[in-house]
Amino acid sequence: MAIIARHLMIFGRVQGVFYRNWIVETAARLGLAGWVRNRMDGSVEALAEGPEEAVEQFLALAQELSLIHISEPTRPLYI
C-alpha cells in the first residue's frame, strides 16, 4: 500500500462555515495526517497524507463540497 500526499487549494465559500473542521474530522476518520489553514484571500489550504486509497476517498469527498485544486507536494512535507 503506497503512502501519498496531496496539496489542496480550496476555493468558494469555505471560511466561516466550519470547512476546516470538516477537513480535520474527515481526514482523521480516514486515518490521514496533514494540516489545514485559512488563507488571506479567503481560500483554504490543506495537505493530506496517507494510504493512497484513503487520500483518494478524501479528495472525492472534498470535491463534492467545493472547487479545489489538487497537486503533489513539491517540497518536503515535514522538517
Task: Give a description of the structure.
The structure is a single chain. With 79 residues, this protein is α+β, with helices and mostly antiparallel strands. It is 32% helix and 35% strand. The chain is built from two helices and four strands. A four-stranded antiparallel sheet has the order 2-3-1-4, covered by helices on one side. Strand 2 and strand 3 form a beta hairpin. The longest helix has 14 residues. The mean pLDDT is 84.
Structure in a nutshell:
This protein has 79 residues and is an alpha+beta fold.
* Helix-strand category: alpha+beta
Give the CA-CA distance, first to last residue: 24 Å
Order of helices and strands: EHEEHE
The share of residues in helices is: 25-40%
Please indicate the percent range of residues in DSSP E strands (runs of 2 or more).
Answer: 35-45%
Strand elements, count: 4
Topology:
Layout: E1 3-11, H1 19-29, E2 33-38, E3 44-51, H2 52-65, E4 67-71
Antiparallel strand pairs: 1-3, 1-4, 2-3
